[in-house]
Amino acid sequence: GDCSWAWDDHHLEKDNLWATIREEIARDSKAEPICSSFLFSTVLAHNTIEESLAFILANKLDSPVLPATQLMQLFLEAFKSDEIRSDFLADLLATYDRDPACKQYSSCLLYYKGFHAVQTHRVAHYLYRRGRASLAILLQSRASETFHVDIHPNATVGKGVMLDHATGVVMGESTVVGDNVSLLHHVTLGGSGKSTGDRHPKIGSGVLIGAGAVVLGNVKVGNCSKIGAGSVVLADVPPRHVAVGVPARNIPLVGSDTTAPVQDMNQLYDI
Amino acid sequence: GDCSWAWDDHHLEKDNLWATIREEIARDSKAEPICSSFLFSTVLAHNTIEESLAFILANKLDSPVLPATQLMQLFLEAFKSDEIRSDFLADLLATYDRDPACKQYSSCLLYYKGFHAVQTHRVAHYLYRRGRASLAILLQSRASETFHVDIHPNATVGKGVMLDHATGVVMGESTVVGDNVSLLHHVTLGGSGKSTGDRHPKIGSGVLIGAGAVVLGNVKVGNCSKIGAGSVVLADVPPRHVAVGVPARNIPLVGSDTTAPVQDMNQLYDI
Amino acid sequence: GDCSWAWDDHHLEKDNLWATIREEIARDSKAEPICSSFLFSTVLAHNTIEESLAFILANKLDSPVLPATQLMQLFLEAFKSDEIRSDFLADLLATYDRDPACKQYSSCLLYYKGFHAVQTHRVAHYLYRRGRASLAILLQSRASETFHVDIHPNATVGKGVMLDHATGVVMGESTVVGDNVSLLHHVTLGGSGKSTGDRHPKIGSGVLIGAGAVVLGNVKVGNCSKIGAGSVVLADVPPRHVAVGVPARNIPLVGSDTTAPVQDMNQLYDI
């Protein structure tokens, strides 16, 4: 199956998305006056979704280390990048699309720490690539403290990526994650050994990785494959296979169904 | 064995419990003057255990999103419910009863993030059931950020429930947990697939779930059963069985002992 | 192999270490003016590494419960202990030595929550041994909230210990960890059952424990052994063995190589 991400085909256009989020929030604000000042300052007060997201992240990551005002500037600067903007929109739509508990676009924007962690990473990665390693590592550290997700700023993360629940996710320095991937909580994409260089997993597109799975070393997980919850993957997984067990073995995905695992989000497996 | 929870039988009555907690804190406050202002404001200044707990949780969950003063009001309102009150007392007694490292009732009240996460969930659930979904989801999100426990407000949690250590616990939208259950840290009661509706585990009473275990889908774990640490459960577990392995197989609990696993808290298993 | 820790042999002397950290920070501060006030207050303003670390931890653990000023005093008092000082230096050098993503000594000092959690534990342990249990338990609780690492203050932790990524690490009341040990994130050194007394693992020196591994009960893991990611260890592991699987079986470490697993940090295993 083609695992490329194509949010334009089945989703709101960007301008409609922002309008929809504002409508959701206006409704919530009316229903819950106790939240209205918070909902105004995070969403309704802003002209664009980029500005709203920068404000939300800056306030969550705020600390004496780097105050919200300075973080806000950093985030706004990074969000001028077309790539980051289209990535975070794809992530938001992916979450709404794949998580049946996500009933409003605004829930993901305001409340999902997996979404917040990935967007913080995108900014850290942007800085890291521009020679600002120490600032990028500071952001990595604040995201690990705040969202409990530890992604090295050098890791490359595609678009349409969802971290569901997110607590405990780890991605090492030379990790590459494709487009249209979902990782449940506690997933480790880890290195092995003290050697420097390319030592972390390469995850294809359309992949679903179950809760608590550990993938170690410079292994390749093929497009449209799935890794079972609690499995430990130490070797390549071919495309359209499911890897299960400790250590995992690879089993072809059965049937003529060419849906990517990330689309049905089914963590179960038959073996 | 009967797995119902009966804290009145082997524990302090409620009034004695509050008096005992105040005595513990008065003693600690005298021994550690450095903590006395904190111990006064959290415990000694209050007339009831409900007021004390509301104050403790409101301050832990405090943020610009929803300040402590407003949280305190929400918690006090929910704690007028007899059911929530009796549930949190049972949780507190269960923790004291089952965790040998818990040497004072007040330690659980003040310091156990698993206890705090469950009580925050009880309030979120209370609000959710009364049509206040957006506020409930905000509380879920704050609890996930603060206590590293992610429980959907629609999940139903019985009384006498302990989350030990608690980091990383996840319970999805249609989860049901019985009375008198203990979950170690990193336990996932997760859904599978994008279908809405009833898609999460149903955990019986008297059940013990070991560290890092993953239970997926609308499966039934019977009363007085046990799930081994690191196990992945994808199918029903009959009553009085232990489920172990990745994926787990079910083994009858041996011997004439009818003690519920939750009572001896023994995570080990013989296979 | 001899798994004892000997940082003097291959590392900077203590005074050189502090001078090196100040040089790193002076360089970073010049390159990132946005961070300079933070870097000045945490490192450059201090005369010793002890003072710097006390300031860093006090600010991270700061809360209305126990404000940074009082925490700073507690940490400075504990850091007068030669043992704690030499332990935290060994931990810092171990992290620099073993984590290829750690490119500056100062990164570990400022940003690694595993390092922060272990040093907070050392202070909690110091207080606990001096009869200040309630204060020690308060520190344990703050560390669990802040660093997502839950170590009982009675646990004994050797020197040269690294918690890599750290989210979700748990060590129970009677745990003993030797010198020169590395634990990845989500590692549980847990008890079993409600019995009090000696009920937690004893980890030898030179040991490497992979991500998500669970070790339960009063079992002994021998020197220079390794526990595979996601494995569940319920029985003793002899020296120079690797334990893998759920539940784990023990396999001798092959070859004439006498390097401790903690030195090559290789989480992979051949079975």
From TrEMBL, chains A, B, C:
Keywords: Acyltransferase, Amino-acid biosynthesis, Transferase. One of its GO terms (biological process) is cysteine biosynthetic process from serine. This is serine O-acetyltransferase. One of its GO terms (molecular function) is serine O-acetyltransferase activity. The keyword Acyltransferase applies. Residues 17-120 form the Serine acetyltransferase N-terminal domain. The chain holds residues 67 to 337 of 337 of the full protein. Belongs to the transferase hexapeptide repeat family. It comes from Chloropicon primus. Pathway: Amino-acid biosynthesis; L-cysteine biosynthesis; L-cysteine from L-serine: step 1/2. Its EC number is 2.3.1.30. One of its GO terms (cellular component) is cytoplasm. The keyword Transport does not apply.
